[in-house]
Amino acid sequence: MSKIALVDDDRNILTSVSMALEEEGYEVLTYSDGSEALHALTKEEPDLAVLDIKMPRMDGLELLTHLRKKTQMPVIFLTSKDDEVDELTGLRLGADDYIKKPFSQRLLIERIRTLLRRAEIMRAGGVRPNGSDDVVQRGDLVLDPSRHMCSWKGLHVNLTVTEFLLIQALAKHPGHVKNRDQLIDAAYGEHIYVDDRTIDSHIKRLRKKFRETDDEFKEIETLYGVGYRYRDTATVAG
């Protein structure tokens, strides 16, 4: 049974969403503010967390910042209807997805299922039809999906599941351009709608993480109006 942490200061949301998740067979841990959640989640890590952004004492953005120092578990943000700044900030801090309030509980449950399924595949090192369980090595980059390990020049780079799947999709075919729809399919699976800005924010965070290890990292290239590609060093060298 997967364990879901639900953090929101709205008691109605805590009650209704936790009931819906429990009906789907999930164990649900509920918290009404970020400080309470941080204290509990650092002791008992769930399989996934759903965080509201607007909360007293400690908001969801600050909570995620603390959590990302200790865990790469999947995180979904609940955001206000028109607050694009919070959405982008949350993604840049390492959230895997976001859903705008008011939201459909069925949509939230489907997003939760998708993220849990991806995380389980990564943990188990399961074989996928496209062979994505194979170790990928591109120059100084090494990706080992079976252990969810990424290294650059021999140094570990700590990635979320979404970030790992994105760099894997790009690095498997150096020089080949992936548009945003293709990257969404690689990271989230087909039939899941994710805004283009979500991919852009994940790519920005990926670059930041690699540059914290090597400030000369330039392997992820942007082709404006087209998409992204992993630099083909063989072509560059030639």
From TrEMBL:
The modification 4-aspartylphosphate is found at D52. PROSITE patterns: OMPR_PHOB, RESPONSE_REGULATORY. Residues 3-116 form the Response regulatory domain. It is found in: Cytoplasm. The keyword Transcription regulation applies. GO terms for molecular function: phosphorelay response regulator activity; transcription cis-regulatory region binding. GO terms for cellular component: cytosol; protein-DNA complex. GO terms for biological process: positive regulation of DNA-templated transcription. Residues 133-232 form the OmpR/PhoB-type domain. The keyword Phosphoprotein applies. Residues 133-232 bind DNA. It comes from the Bacteria. Keywords: Cytoplasm, DNA-binding, Phosphoprotein, Transcription, Transcription regulation, Two-component regulatory system. PANTHER family: DNA-BINDING DUAL MASTER TRANSCRIPTIONAL REGULATOR RPAA, REGULATOR OF RPOS. This is DNA-binding response regulator. It comes from Thalassospira lohafexi.
